[in-house]
Each structure stands twice: as C-alpha cells, then as structure tokens.
Amino acid sequence: MTARDLTTFEAQPFGLTLARTLSESVPIVRVRLSTRPDGSVPQSFALDDAASELRYRELSGSRLPLGLTVHRPVESRWELTLPLADDVRCFGLGERYSGLNLRGRTHTLFATDDKNHLEAIDSMYKAVPCVVLFRAGVCTALFLDSPARTRWRLDPDLTGTLGIEVASRRGFTFYVIGPAELPQVVGAYTRLTGRAPLPPAWALGHHQSRYGYESAAEALAVARELRQRRLPSDALVLDIHYLDEGRPFTVSPTRFADFEALVQQLHELDLRVVTILNPAVSAAPNDPLGVSGRERDVFCRAGDRPYAAPARPGLAHWPDFLRPDVRAWWGERHAFLIDRGVDGIWNDMNEPALFGDEHPLPADARELPPDDAQLFLQTTPEGDVGHFEVRSLYGLTMCRATWEGLLQLRPNQRPFVLTRSGYAGMQRYGACWLGDNFSWFEHLRLSIPMLLNLGLCGVPFTGVDVGGFDDDATGELVARWYQLGIFYPYLRNHCSIGRRHQEPWQFGSLVEDAVRRLLEVRYQLLPYLQGLFHEHRQTGAPILRPLCWHYPDDPIALEIDDQLLFGEHVLVAPIVTRGTRRRAVYLPAGRWYPFGGGEPLLGGRYHSCEWGWSDVPAFVKQGTILPLAEPSPSTARLSSAELRLRVFGTTARGVLYEDDGASRDYEHGGYNRWQLRVNGRKLRATLEHAGYDAPPRRVVLEGPGYRREVQLKR
Ligand code: GLC
Hints:
The chain is an alpha+beta fold. About 20% of the residues lie in helices and about 30% in strands.
C-alpha cells in the first residue's frame, strides 16, 4: 500500500466518515477511519453507539478538523499528526506516571502489568486514549476510540506537533470534542463514554487490605483490632490467600475453612467483605470452572483450542469477555461468592497479566503480527480478531461481566467492583486503583497528578494503595499518606506480601492516633463526598480536580499539581516529602479557612503552612456550607447520623445530597437535593429535588462563633 496523506473525504484507499453531534452545546466531530469500504470500524468497543444519547449527522466534503493529517505507512500502522501551539497543555490519557501536564514525552497506551513504577515506565494497567488540550482556559479533547496500542507523541522534540500512532489493521474512531471550557469538554466526553454510578455508601469508607491475610483467623484478628482501636472502617479485603490455589470462585479449604462464618463475623463487626478474582482459569483437566468453560467454548483461542499459559492457578485459560454470552457465564459464577455473603469484587491481573510475558507485543514492533499470532484470538460480532487489536478492553469487559453479574444476583443493590485495568468508559463499572505503587514519598506525591489526569478522562472513583504497596512503609509515610488519602474517592490501605505490615497500629501510638483522627474526618466528609458523586453524574465533573478546573485564568494555579481541589470548595495541600512539616500552599482567589479552624487566609498568593501529624492539610473556601456527618465507626448508621452544616463565612451556600446509600432507586429519582443558603446566622434550605424519604436525624448549623439545631423542612 502506498503511503499517502489523508486530509479530505475523497481520499482513498480507506473509508472515512465525518459526523457531528446534533443539538449539543459542545461540538463533537466524529471521524471514522477504516479499512472497510463502508467506512465503519468493526465495533466501537468502548461505546455502545446504540445506547449513547448522542446523535450524529454526517458531514460531507469537510476537511479533517484541527489541521489533522492521517498517514498509513504500513497496513497496521496509522499515523495522525496535528499542530500543537507552544502554550497548549496536555492533560488526561488515563493512568500516566507523570505530572499533570503530559507534554514533552511519548505516552504508550496499551494495558500492561509493569511493576517498574519509575520515570521510564511507559504503558501501565489502564489505557484511556483521551487527551485534553488546554490553552488559556479553552479546551479541546481528542478521544481516539481504539483499544489497540496507541502512542501519543506530545511534542517531545519541541517541533510543535502532536503525533498519534495506532497499531491496528482495522481502523478506529476519533472524536474531537470542543472547543469549550474544561468542565464542558469533560461533560461532553462523559456523555459519550458514560458516567460513574453512585457507589454504595460503605464503599466510600475505609478499606483495610493486605496481600494477604493468610487465614480466616488472621483476617478476623485484623478486623477486631480495627474495632478495638476505634479506627473507622467499612471493609476488609481478602487477597488471593482466600482462594484455593488461586482458582476463581473457590475458597481455600485449609486457610479459610469456614468462610461463611468468617463473613458473618465480619458483618457483625459492621465490616463488608471484598474478595479478589483474577481472570485466569485453571487449565487442569479436573478444574470444574475450566471444564465448564471448555464445554461452552468461552476461552480466548489459539487456533481452534483454548489458549493456555502460566498464571496464578498454574497453566490457565482466559475467558473471552468481548462475548456477551461469556460475560453472562462469568457473571453468573458470582453466585458462589454472593451466596457466601461477599459484598464487593476486586478484579485484578486483568490487563490480562501473563506470568513472565508482561509485554507480549514488543515495544519496537513496527507492524502488528497477523491476527492469529497476537497471543490469542477473540471474537467480535464481525468475526475473529487478534488480541492486540482489542487488548486494552480486556479489563473493562471483565468488569462489565462482574458488574452485570452482580446486578443479576442482587438487582436493587449498588454493586462494588474494583479494577486494576480499564479503558475509556471504565467509570461505568465502579472503582479503580493504580496498582503496585511503592512505599515512597515520590509515589505519595505523584498520586495527585495521576488521579487528576484520570478524573479528566471521566474516571472519578479512584485511589491508590495508601501507605504504598511494595517496599516497607514508615510511620511517617503512613501518617502523611492518610492526610491525603482521606480525600481519595476510594480509600484503601494495602501492601505487599513480604513487606512490613501496614495497618495503622503497626507504627506506634502517635501514628495510630493521627490516622484515627484523620479517618474520623473522612467519615465526617461523607455527605459532601456523596454530593460530589451526584454532581459527577449530573455534569461529568471529577471529584478530585486540578486547580485550573475552577481557576482557568490563574497562571499560577495552572502549574500546580501537588495540590488538588476536592470538589469546588475544599483545597488539599498535603506534605509530600520526608522530614518536612511545612510547605508552601497556593490559594487561588478568595479567602480560605484552614479546615481545622482559624482565621481565613487571603488567596491569590502562597502561604507557608505547617501540618502536624493529625492535621487535615486542607482549606475551605469562604462562602461555603459543608455538609458533614458526626464521626462514626462505620457507615452503618450514616443516614441517621447527626448532620452538621458547617458554615465558612457570614454568607454561604452549599448543596446537600441524600439517598439511602444502598439501592439503585436514585437512578429513578430516589434522592433529595437541597440548596442551602446562610445569611447572617439564618439558614434557608430549599428542596430542589425530592424523591427520598429520609429518616429523622438531628441537624446542626455550625458557624463562626455559633452552633444550633435547625430543621430542614420539606
Ligand atoms: C497484584 C495486585 C496487588 C495484589 C497482588 C496479589 O500485584 O496489583 O494489589 O495484592 O497482585 O493478588
């Protein structure tokens, strides 16, 4: 095939269609580039076009947007380029080991289990191929809907170009969203790819985990410690030790002999149980899951046999989650865990990770091997496809299988699914964390821009292993990490086998007391956090936001990525270096109250702030009413806990969101949203949306120098 540029409709030999959304305030241009004569790509895998609310109209004779050119030098490589002005910042691209601005290097998106979380790491567990170009507050998002390997050259050589390489034989769909302001662009992107459902309230509490609690007795002992030491918590996580030799949907008959009794005892302690599952299914001839899978032909194939390679359960097969019948088969299997009382499911190793073969497509491969030489074959409605064409969808489709399985089994309960791998749209299936980080201050610091970039690609329910996974944590690191961690939407303490135990009491009473106090604050913040999840559903706004989300014209705010906004009104600026008690905090325009009390500080400048071990390193903007709950040991009684409306300033506003925290009724209007206003000391509460019959609870208004009970009248 001859190399040629493609800039207009007439260009051949590949099909191109251009379309534009109808009736959208933010323009979206959709470009389909395909090897097929009808111009369609085999399947827009992340997006179920039929389910999308957006409607498109074909454009004809148009040139490609943004001065984009497309070039196809070899059959399985597409190269897109567009000019990139000097002052454009690049955000997004999902999970990147990077500061907020991704410009100046090449980023590879291809789901990979790479443990070297260092500057040189390129592909990570998730691939969200959406970059947000930000220039003087005006943004355009480029979303390249392809789960094949994509490489984004964000002007590493200062040539003023953005280049994207797509390793696909079939083609892809490309969306240009904007120009508009950052919140509008992310809003439109999340209308396209979906928004996160509301988590069950318990999933927003503190999760205690370790790889691994090695027996039922150890798990129970940890749970009892959490309660005896009054460390607010909601979940205990069981890593692979609970499984029988790593095989999905089994329980170890020796280590976790009476599993149901354990789950019941944990429930009696008001702790939920989250269990891990890997997708690898044992290929042993007598493994019941393997037998069932082979009978139904559910596995990815090498030729006409199930593909097999080493993984946790020994030689293993991988279900082909692209197929709806396979997702249903996997989903139904969760009855095994649900019947035993398990509350949430953790999907791990779903890049998928193969032992000893973390990079199955060599980084320097210029062309894709033929379909049948791409590790294995998967099945789409259009026929067989080589795995590398669809690799980054493996994690998302596994989560979808889990999510749909849980909904079948417990139709009116909000599922909790946690994943390591994912693709654009993964937010529809729950939470994610950033895999195997290290107990290093550097990784505490990097978690801020990494989670901010994920949020800008529509993924709000995120966290990282608090305290760090690999390496030994210190008490100082753990205390500092909780100071930030209480603001992670997903909050889990987790660490690796062979490493120092990391539960908050492992480091002496000073650290334990600090963590207790911080966790109490997390539990106080839950009503506000629930409101932020609701806001995400309404608008697509992430929960953790870079300062430029709300202050796009402030040149200093634009550079800051070691601070974040937790919703609009809370600014978090933790200590992220060892041996430090003080740091410079930049406060944008306005006045900001220290979270822990005291006079407001003037924004538009830096302040030097000292944070002790149990301080909450945050500020609240003047004019805010924060809905807070009284501190409690778990979320079990959250909806009837005393509500504290904390007022920062003499006139202030806020939003209170309420629902039952458990069912899916909110999807059909089963929630309340109050607009709150305070003037002087007088509260005006307007019920903007009424759909939930809230249980009675005490409501207290707390302002500078006053505290009194108030009624919220419907
Ligand atoms: C992977 C996960 C880690 C887990 C471990 C054992 O490394 O990323 O969180 O603890 O596997 O299951």
